Automatic annotation (TrEMBL):
TM region positions: none
The organism of origin for this protein: Apiotrichum porosum
One GO molecular-function entry: methyltransferase activity
Pfam families reported for this sequence: Methyltransf_23 (PF13489)
Protein name in UniProt: Methyltransferase domain-containing protein
Region named Disordered: 1-31
Amino acid sequence: MSAEGKDGQVADGDAASDADSLDLVRPPSPVNQPGTGVFSVLWGRPYSNQLWTYRFPVDQDEVTRLDRVHQAIRSAGLTFGPVDVLLDNPQRWPRLLDVGCGSGMWLTEVAVQFPRVDCVGIDFLEQQHVNAPRNVTFMQVNVPRGMGVLAAGSFDVVHIRQMIYAIPDYAGMLAQAYRVLRPGGILLIHEPNLLCYSAWQEYTPEQLGPALVQWSLAFRHGLSQRGVDMNVFNRMEQLAAAAGFTMTHPPHFHYHPLAPGNDNSEAQNETECTRALVAASRITIVEGGEYTHDTFSVLEGEVHAELDGHGAGGARARGLYSPWGFWWVRKE
Ligand SMILES: C[S@@+](CC[C@H](N)C(=O)[O-])C[C@H]1O[C@@H](n2cnc3c(N)ncnc32)[C@H](O)[C@@H]1O
């Protein structure tokens, strides 16, 4: 078991024991049958037995899903705020941290753009691409407690993306981001809220895509059973302020279609993102207790029909959008 010392530093950072002490929230569902090895195969896909909150598969399809999401949302910008000014600093070798870097696509693009920046990606799961540039380092760290191994004040920029549904202690993660940043450093936060909105005022989301709406509510329910608070999205400014950050600029909100109508490659990628997220959410939802594998499969089939334009909401599922927020805040 790790012992926490001064400044939140963890003296003995064993990842597996951190996992034991961190992921305490276990749903009361009768379908919960944790495996005994490092991975269990559930519904044909491998899942880590060491991360309890984040019940997403660890396989090539999941890496592809993460890369697709990256491709879909990068139009909102790779970074936000005056990050370039910090990273272009010729006086020294700036450092950047990506918390929960996933496949490492975001980090790799930043590393290519800023070859003089030391880019560190931390994640509990080993699913990073092997062809990252030389200025990228990947470390296995259990967030937020394991971040104690990173020195205080040692990064110019910290990036957090899509961690809202992975980390129950979001405030603790922001506190660690604050600790590892230098004064003047910037934290970037880029999160989805996983709710469905209607682009057309005369229709409710339920009329446009009933299965997609039902799925998003089931996913949020499954996440809440694991201690995740999706309301973090609406409280981001307060949470950042509580961690010590100053926010001088409003966030940038952008909206992504869940079932885009066009047949171009961008739209196909967005549709594939939705399809893959629904598939990846299976265990979270089934273990949440409201669905069995069979009823989830029915729901998934209905979602596919909506994505193909044949669902109960007809082609109108194309009017469903989901918001993302991009915040940048500073450590004074
Ligand atoms: C939805 S993915 C986001 C990946 C990446 N930030 C992106 O936007 O493409 C969430 C990531 O958090 C990682 N993760 C989940 N729980 C974690 C924990 N306790 N410590 C470290 N990483 C964790 C997962 O392995 C996964 O790579």
